Amino acid sequence: MYPLVLCSIVMVSLIIERVIVLRKAAVDGDELLEEIKKVFTPGGDATKAMEVAKEFGGPLGRMFQRGLKNSQRSADAIEMAMEQEAANETPALEANLPIIKTIINIAPLLGLLGTIAGMISSFRAASQQGLSNPTQILGGISEALISTATGITLAVVGFVMYNYFANQVRKLIEDMEYYGAELVNYLTGRLD
Average pLDDT in the 181-187 region? Predict the structure, then answer.
């Protein structure tokens, strides 16, 4: 049970950390793009627009800052700069997800290991004392099964949260691609 308790503490702390990070990373791309369009005209000074992007923050805001910084260059150069920034942001969005996935995979195994250890000790007690007291043996077996239930519960909760976080990261990356293309189109005059 001790490894399962440790895994649950680690997983809960990582879940809280991911919730905070992904909530801060979520920025309304439509609103950001509209604010940029209000303060910046293609070919003009991008300083004010970069400040707006910085205020919005998040990966999308930082990517917009990088694109606006290169707004006087060609469309390919702007796209490349924004793609580099998006590539820099992606590892921070996906951080700690492999650890959560590892806990999901090992928690049921640790639970089974605890059950097997408990069964061994119950059968050892039965072999030493005989089957005269089945209550003691059944109590030991039911106690041993608690670790399996704990491991499976931990894996189920972790699996749900992992999928939620993976979908949030995927959505953020898709938003960066979409709004990045929209900003490039606006900066280069392909879109008004």
Answer: 89
